[in-house]
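Entry:
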Amino acid sequence: MTTPANEYIQSLQKELTTGNTTEHTHRPALKAFIESLVPNMLATNEAGRIKCGAPDFVITQGVKTIGYIEAKDVGKSLDEAEQSEQLKRYRESLNNLVLTDYLEFPLVCRWRTPSHCPSGYTCKRQQNQA
């Protein structure tokens, strides 16, 4: 049986085999995958700028914004990307930010205290306070 995750991976593999891809190539596949996860979820690519910048996707359900996605190219170091000025601005301003290289999806959260982090996630604040 084909699942949304399988379809997403197959789409990425098909695109990557061309050897002619960029970070933007995979956005339609990511949009379709995200929207397949929850009914009425919308992943808007290249939404309007907000105060801290322009995350690649704004994730909404109805009129409620539930998160943001910043995508980097496949194979790009997410550790390096997380240290960028762009991600520092996003981290200071946005809750529920997912940084991805289309293969990994770590949550980059900005919570008031480590106890506010969702179960199963390790916040940077928890790591820094350890």
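The two ends are 43 Å apart (CA to CA).
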